[in-house]
Amino acid sequence: MLLEPKPCLKRIYLNGNTYGRDIAIRELSLAIQNNLLENRTIMRQFYDPSLHISEETRMFFLHLALCHSATLIGTKEKFRYVSRYPDDEQLLKLAANAGYMLISRNPENSYILIGGKTYCFTTKRMIHSSVKHPRTSIIVEDQDGTIILFSRANYKLMTSIIDNSDSLNNVYENFYQEGLHVEMCSYRIITQKQYKRFEEKIGEFGTENTDLVYTIVENLEMHSSPISLVAFEDQPRDGVLPFLARSKKAFDNIVLTSQTKGTSLLISATSLGIVKTNPIVGLIKGNTLEEVDTSLSFLFESPKYEVIC
Question: Record's PANTHER family (predicted)?
Answer without folding.
Answer: PHOSPHOLIPID-TRANSPORTING ATPASE, PROBABLE PHOSPHOLIPID-TRANSPORTING ATPASE
